[in-house]
From TrEMBL:
This is Cytidylate kinase. GO terms for molecular function: kinase activity. It comes from Prevotella bivia DNF00320. It comes from the Bacteria. Keywords: Kinase, Transferase.
């Protein structure tokens, strides 16, 4: 597709990755997908969006790799069967593929979109990181919690995202070989990080 542009943003919790993704979406006129993809998956499957949120990449992925029972919205016998975490991931993957087909220009945040959309041509994969102490500060400001609590949130969040990504992609979350660019958002700040990435995108795709 001539006008196609897909930007995938992986990020450490508290790094400002979502803010970077939103600004890039505005800059390039892209449809933005973060938790929105869960809504699409829920609508397509008929399952509760709340359940998708509870079993998202950020929330206890490994607690249910075994079969579990979904809270359903209908009475169809199909929905009463046990449903695996892999099946849930498949539904989300289909939603990401569908979103990419409907929107020639889009930005995806996390959820292994870089792997799911790996056959796409005009795509770039970015990972946003930041020093641990700065991420602690960001979480404290966002949630009004103590530093100790923020540290635990980050450690658990990074662990879950890493295991989720590594399990489904066969790649290493946050490792330079898994992305086109890894960048510390604290070096330049959010706005200048966006400018830096935007310049790379413009040169890569001759925009």
């Amino acid at each position: 597709m001539e006008n196609e542009l897909i930007i995938n943003i992986g990020r450490q919790l508290g790094s400002g990755g979502r803010a970077v993704a939103e600004l890039l979406a505005k800059r390039f006129g892209c449809q933005f997908y973060d938790k929105e993809i869960l809504n699409i998956a829920a609508k397509e499957s008929g399952f509760s969006e709340k359940f998708f949120e509870q079993n998202d990449e950020q929330k206890g992925f490994f607690k249910s790799l075994c079969n579990f029972r979904l809270p359903m919205m209908g009475d169809n016998d199909f929905y009463k069967n046990n449903f695996s975490q892999e099946s849930l991931y498949q539904l989300q993957s289909e939603a990401i593929l569908e979103a990419a087909e409907k929107s020639p220009r889009c930005v995806f945040v996390g959820r292994t979109a870089d792997y799911i959309l790996r056959e796409k041509k005009n795509m770039i994969n970015i990972f946003i990181t930041a020093p641990f102490d700065k991420r602690v500060e960001n979480i404290c400001q966002r949630t009004k919690c103590t530093k100790e609590k923020a540290q635990k949130i980050l450690e658990k969040g990074d662990e879950i995202r890493s295991k989720y990504y590594n399990y489904y992609t066969g790649k290493e979350w946050g490792h330079a070989t898994s992305y086109d660019l890894c960048i510390d958002s604290h070096l330049l700040g959010i706005e200048n990080t966006v400018c830096y990435i935007a310049e790379l995108i413009q040169k890569k795709f001759n925009l």
